[in-house]
Amino acid sequence: MNIQERLFSLQDPEYRLFHARLVPSVDPERIIGVRMPALRSLAKELYGTPEAEAFLRELPHHYYDENTLHGLLISMVKDPAECIAALDSFLPYVDNWATCDVTSPKAFRKHPQGLIEKIRVWLASDHTYTVRFGVRMLMDHYLDEAFAPEHLIWIASLSSAEYYVRMGIAWYFATALAKQPAAALPFITEKRLDPWIHNKTIQKAAESFRVTPELKAELKKYRI
C-alpha cells in the first residue's frame, strides 16, 4: 500500500466527523479521520525510508491527514538546515491550526544558528499559518534562557485580522507572562496590545497552571 492507502486503512469514521468540527477551515471531504496516536506511529514507522522521502517531496497533498503526517515527519528531521528547507516547502500549504501546531521540529530544541532570523522571516509572511508557526517557534524556544525582551515587541507588532494569528499572539503572551512575567506584564498594564488580544491573553493566563495566583489576580484588574 502507498501512504494514502495506509492512511485510509487507519480511518476512524466517528473520529472523522468529530475532528472535522475542530478544523473548520478544512473541507470535511478532505479529512480521512486518522487519530493522532495512529498518525504518530505511522510517522515513526516511515521516517527515514525512501517512501517517506518521496512523500515529503509530493506537495501539495490533498488530504488533511496527509498534511498532518507531513508535519510529523518534518518534526523528526534531525538536521536544522534540512528541517528549515522542508518547512519552507511545506508551510505555504498548511491550511489549518492543527497541522500547524503539531509540526514541532526536534531539531530546533538547541536553538540552531540562524533560527531566530528565520523566525523573523516567518513572522513577516502574509500566510496565516506561516505566521502562527513563527509565533509558536518563538514561544517554544525563546522564552527561557534564549529570551530577549525585543521578542515581545516583535509579536506585539504583528498586525493581523486572522483569528488563528491573533490567538497565537495571545497564547504567546500568556506563556510569556508565566515564563518572563517582569518583561511581559507591562504589555498588559500599559495596554500595548490590540484590545481583543489583550483580553484573550488575560483569559489564557488565568486558565494556565503556570501563572501564579497572585499574577492572575493582578491581571484581572486590567481587563478591558
Report on the structure:
- It contains 14 helices and no strands.
- It is mostly helical and 224 residues long.
- Helix 5 runs antiparallel to helix 6, helix 11 (163-179) packs across helix 12 (181-189) and helix 11 (163-179) packs across helix 13 (195-207).
- 35% of the residues are buried.
- The model has no long low-confidence stretch (mean pLDDT 96).
Mean pLDDT over the full residue set: 96
Supply Rg. 19 Å
Poorly predicted regions: none
| Succession of helices and strands | HHHHHHHHHHHHHH
Could you give a short account of the major beta sheet?
Answer: none
List keywords for this structure.
about 220 residues; mainly alpha
What order do the helices and strands come in, and which of them pair?
Layout: H1 3-9, H2 13-20, H3 36-46, H4 50-57, H5 64-75, H6 80-90, H7 97-102, H8 115-123, H9 128-141, H10 150-156, H11 163-179, H12 181-189, H13 195-207, H14 213-220
Helix pairs in contact: 3-5, 5-6, 8-9, 9-11, 11-12, 11-13
In short:
With 224 residues, the chain is mainly α. It has helices at residues 3-9, 13-20, 36-46, 50-57, 64-75, 80-90, 97-102, 115-123, 128-141, 150-156, 163-179, 181-189, 195-207, 213-220.
